[in-house]
Design brief:
The protein contains eight helices and five strands, in the order E-H-E-H-E-H-H-E-H-H-E-H-H. It has 299 residues and is of the alpha/beta class. Keywords: Hydrolase, Signal.
Length: 299
């Protein structure tokens, strides 16, 4: 278990200040993006604060929000502030989140697990096409989930990991089923990236890196299996699975192409290295993720 990675989440205490640099959205039928996850996705949105608008598509705080990149992350790269065609983002992601805090504890008890995040959504938003405020509907809303770096990173070395990872993914898909029951029909799933290649894990032994890499692969395989089963038992579902290993490995293979001196440096400016800190990717990797997602889903 490597709990030190979660200490880095404290960097979320200050707002990012970089100039927005969004990708174009090409006329997708989706008007809303509802997302869940951890610090790789967090923007600091509060459902009780200002709601998303074309002037600020993340609603609150100021765009691009509280991120672990010192600027845009993969979600905000997908948005177009002040554009009439921008996606409006309801982002429930919480830095440090695990899927189920009773299975893998987060770094502090106030962190919202995936279960907590889904509960917030079902409590505060409706997918009824006739009564919804705002008018989120099954057809105009894309649901995205990117979680697991803390589940795997904190628990991969446990002797119970084979059974625990199954419990985690079962709970994950249970929350997806809850979203489906609430009306969600379009789902984007992002896999756990190769966190064994983060600077923090590269500082560990080769054996630890190998073990964590194997745990990532096993987790993603369980997730893929669960998604297939979910599709098979629910009508009207459209799913996309984005393999995040591609963008990470692309940047790591050619760091100088993305403004970094090497593949393992990190800097809180979010741009001069591939990594914002020793566990969080910087803006270049996030932009690659956004570009891949946009191509896959047709945004």
């Amino acid at each position: 278990m490597i709990p030190l990675q979660l200490i880095n989440l404290l960097c979320l205490a200050s707002a990012a200040v970089a100039t927005p640099n969004s990708l174009a959205v090409n006329g997708s039928s989706f008007k809303y993006l509802v997302s869940f996850g951890d610090s790789y996705s967090q923007t600091g949105f509060s459902i009780t604060g200002a709601k998303p608008s074309t002037s600020n598509p993340i609603g609150n705080p100021a765009f691009p929000g509280y991120t672990t990149t010192n600027g845009n992350n993969w979600i905000t790269y997908l948005l177009q502030p002040a554009s009439p065609t921008t996606l409006l983002s309801y982002n429930f992601a919480s830095g440090g989140a695990t899927t189920d805090a009773s299975l893998v504890k987060p770094f502090q008890p106030t962190v919202l697990s995936l279960i907590d995040q889904v509960t917030l959504f079902t409590t505060h938003l409706s997918l009824s096409s006739s009564t919804s405020t705002p008018p989120v509907t099954p057809s105009n809303t894309l649901f995205a989930i990117w979680i697991g770096v803390n589940d795997v990173g904190n628990a991969f070395s446990s002797a119970t990991w084979p059974s625990l990872s199954q419990e985690i993914t079962t709970q994950y898909l249970s929350q997806v089923q809850t979203l489906y029951s609430s009306g969600a029909r379009n789902f984007l799933f992002l896999t756990v990236p190769p966190i064994q290649l983060t600077p923090m894990v590269l500082a560990e032994s080769n054996a630890t890196q190998t073990q964590e890499g194997a745990a990532v692969e096993a987790y993603n395989a369980l997730l893929a299996k669960g998604i297939k089963e979910f599709e098979g038992k629910n009508e009207g579902v459209t799913t996309w699975v984005f393999e995040t290993s591609g963008p990470f490995e692309e940047a790591i293979k050619s760091p100088k192409s993305y403004g970094a001196r090497d593949a393992s440096c990190y800097d809180a400016d979010g741009t001069s290295c591939l990594w914002f800190n020793n566990y969080h990717p910087g803006q270049a990797i996030h932009k690659l993720v956004a570009e891949g997602v946009a191509a896959l889903v047709g945004l």
